[in-house]
Amino acid sequence: MNYNYHQDLNIVRMNTMPDRSYYIPCSPGDDTSSKEYNERVLLLNGSWQFAYFPSFSEASLESTPDNVLPVPSNWQMYGYDNHQYVNIDYPIPFNPPFVPKENPCGVYKRTFSVELTEKTRFYLNFEGVDSCHYVFLNGVFVGYSQVSHSTAEYDITSFLQDGENQIAVAVLKWCDGTYLEAQDKFRMSGIFRDVYVLRRPQQHVRHYVVQPSIQQESATVSFKFDDFGTALVKSVKVLDAEGRAVAQGETCDDTLSLTIENPVHWNAEQPYLYQMVLDTLQERIVDTIGIRTIATRGNVLLVNEQPIKLKGVNRHDSYPDTGYVASREQMVMDLQLMKQHNINAIRTSHYPNAPEFYHLCDEFGFYVIDEGDMESHGAWSSHGLRDNDWYALVHHDQQFQTAIVDRVQRLVTRDINRPCVVIWSLGNESGLGINTIAAVDAVRKLDSSRLLHYESKNFMPEDEGKFNFDIMDVESYMYPDLEYTEKLAQENKKPLILCEFAHAMGNGPGSLSEYYELFYRYDGFAGGFVWEWCDHAILQYDANGNAQYLYGGDFGEVLHDGNFCVDGLVYPDRTPHTGLLELKNCARPVHVTRDANTFWADNKLDFADLSDALSIVWTLEQNGTKIAEGSITDFSLAPHSKAQLPISLPYIDGSRIYLKFEYLQKAAHPLIPVGTSLGFDQFDLSTEDMNVSLPESHSAVTAEQTKTGWLVCGEAFSYHFKAKLGTFDSCVINGIECFARPAEFDIYRAPTDNDMGEAGIASYGQHSWNSLRLDAAHAYTYETSVEQSNTSVTITCPLSLVADRATPFCNIQAVYKVHGSGAIEASMHVSVRKDLDYLPRFGMRYFLTEDFQNCTYFGYGPQESYSDKHAGCYKSMFHAAVPELFENYIYPQENGSHYGTAECTLSNANTTLRAYSTKPFSFCASEYTREELAATKHHFELQRSGCTVWNIDYAMTGVGSGSCGPYTLEQYRLTEKEFVFDYTFFPQKKS
Ligand code: IPT
Predict the structure, then answer these.
(1) Of 212, 216, 238, which Cα lies nearest the Cα of 224?
(2) What's the CATH code of the domain at 268?
(3) What is the pLDDT of residues 405-452, one digit of tens each?
(4) Whose CA is nearest to atom 7 of ligand 1?
(5) How many A from CA of 428 to the centre of ligand 1?
(6) Is the pTM of this model over 0.85?
(7) Do 313 and 386 share a domain, yes or no?
(8) pLDDT in tens, 773-810
(9) Is 429 one of the catalytic residues?
């Protein structure tokens, strides 16, 4: 085909209608804004004939494609072309406006029938096509458009014939717009959103803008119309949620102003919507209106004059089975999960979402940062890997101005009537330049009622890395560490937003609660958006029908960014990650604090009174068993205020007494069933420490030297201590061996994605655990001594942990006292090599026979917990089968540890192995070894080890956010150079 608009930076569209606000008209008397069951809409979704050509030049409209492809879809999901995942870099040479000659092209064809009448105009709409498209009707060229995530509308009236018509669409994988769409995602192509024809009267309202403003006891809703054809009489009715008309008016001008008395305002907590019915003689447009304002006072962000916090996430359109295609059900599922995890804000990273998405956000209550389809930081690597001098190249280059401005205009014009949109974002990571200024002007001309956001980092040589928010309304940063974040929160002149923070890749993010603490501490801190909502991956099934997820590099791509796309708060199928549970409790609607014997509730909501929104239930547990409970159902507490909670607790003496307040949804909400738990606070009310003294035993113990160590025997046990290992290699209880392999000292863990950023296990970073050889650490023992009394045997074994070529990592004085009861009191005095920054962990690793399947522990659960990631966990006595303790990350890594454990048992049918300590420790029980986890690249390649691997750790380093964000905070790393690890290991026959 011989068209070349896709390689011309000044041509972003050809023959499209001017942009307009999004709506779906219907017939007078109808009452719908939906495309379904609407006689004015001819939905062209469904099966299209499809021909795939490896290059545009080979593509032909004449061919009769014998393949079919569903619309909407991405053709890569149907076996055409190849998947490729790249984050920052351009997947094609940076040679604008040109794109590769091998430019895959899909030709889509189908027929549809219309009845032509003089009174009707026909508009063909595409809501999303990646990357650009040429449209033909009955063999005649209609038009062209780019900007993948925006609507293109064509007036096709004059191209149609009465009866059957043939539409053909040539979609190209690459166009000059590709240089502006370098978003972090799988690069897919095709018609991925709805396609339809609208039948409209010759005269109609083409575009309208609804602008609410709020007065004391009323609201003014101003309408601005842009009619097609001659001016029309427009009659507007505003209905409340019960369907009562609360305002109406008529005009043939281009403006109208209506007043609503005592309006109910829209906010994310109480998303009250009015309905607008806009009638013209032959058409009706039904839309919703939210009465709300957005403003700033000093550096505080206000909705309806009330300070708010954005508890946000970044969300991509990404589904493992449908690619970019987001059905209503899929979007609702995302929003429901978000709502149930206290998320109230979404940044549509990094492009406008499907129009319907915003209607759902209006309806269910979310604040949206609506982002333009714009990201050009591929320029960063256009002259060498990530060279800052080139970062803002595109935003500085005049020849991109038309396209950059077009993108924000399309964004604002389409979504201008959506109350959920509180902030416009020019795009993501494209640097600051002359085109930014032009884009800001364009947005401001179109809308002054929202705030304007852009990361605004200027990378040009003269102002290397400086931020400039002069022309923005908010100050927005990505991944600042905690210390810097606090500094920003003390100095910001405009509302501070972290548009990305807490990189949720793999096991993480750590330290979320610290960031949330800062959000609340500073009025001018408007909140932040976790990167990101979902893992991006491609689903395939194995022969047994098990799901397997693929990521970058799995499709033979040369240029790719591996598993960097697997960095969400939910797995691709939307199963929550433990990071989401962490976020949920950080963003909980109530905080309860304790002051001696009183408890104070702090309503963290911005609009709702506590008595309307939530009920509080409390439970008192001792050692994990409930001993009292109560509820507070009608506690009135205004938003942002604090009051003492009216509870009287029974007084209980003892240890392991925990009080938990849980916040349950009370108000009716379509996405949150009444009674759903939205978070909790827990308090330790113990009056004494747990008595962990050993049961008395007068049974005899003997020790007998063997070739390799000592055999220590008692009434019902025999243990073998292996001198070379400095620990036991056999543990027989009542004649049955519990160990599958000898126990080991352990200072390493299967690197998490965050470790790989931080510790340089991948190619980046300073300190590589592997180059230090921590992964190969093993015991080198010195002279072992054994002391025997009637009822105990004490083995003392000095040792070092060593690896080839490395100086010992630590020296350990290990002392094991074996009692007649079978209990082994282990005590380790550890000195760590001074130059080691920190250890991943320190502890003992047992390899039990695989039938040790039942785990009981008193510690932070039920999900995995780490020193910097346990805000979503509480302390109790938990029971789980070992496989249930496993967190199946798509990229296998350290998982399933439990922080703050006081006691842990593993049992099979015969034996219970108990480990406990006076000082809380971490443990992990797994079917997999850390070696297997570290060596495996996909969850579905993992092989079970054939034993139950049980780590008892003095400490486990936290998880941090180092894969893209800040490293694990100092206080959560195992940095101690001298410490003592005491614990008791107590095998017993099951009674
Ligand atoms: C930053 C991007 O904005 C986002 O799209 C995503 O790539 C994320 O980080 C990493 O997953 S890019 C980074 C260089 C800050």
Answers:
(1) 212
(2) 2.60.40.10
(3) 999 999 999 999 999 999 999 999 999 889 999 999 999 999 999 999
(4) 184
(5) 9
(6) yes
(7) no
(8) 999 999 999 999 999 998 999 999 999 999 999 999 99
(9) yes
